[in-house]
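Exam revision sheet. Question 4 asks you to relate a sequence to its structure. Input first:
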Amino acid sequence: MKLGPEQSVQMPMKTVISLIVLVSIFTFSYFQITERLNNLETQDTLMQSDLLKKAEQTPKNLEIFMLIEELYKQNDKHQELLDKNIHTQVKLDHIAIQLDKALTDIEKLKDKVRNNGNSH
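Answer key, structure tokens:
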């Protein structure tokens, strides 16, 4: 079979339209897949850059954690001192009450001795 410029080819319109639609669908699908891959690569790149930024912040975070830990230690020490001061204050209040009672008892004894001394 020889084909030349004088020969004509007959093709039904249904087949031509089917081929055009098929090529269009494949082209559209190719561009959709390409776009989806580009989006995924962009997201991956952004995620990797975010991870790198977080990795760069790690020393700062460690320093903050160390400072927080030091503050907790200082807070614990201050709480212990405060507890001791509260106990000391309670003891001082108790001693003050006992001292007032002792002074009252001494005054009563002194008055009793004076009264007994005057009667002799």
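Marking note for examiners. The radius of gyration is 50 Å.
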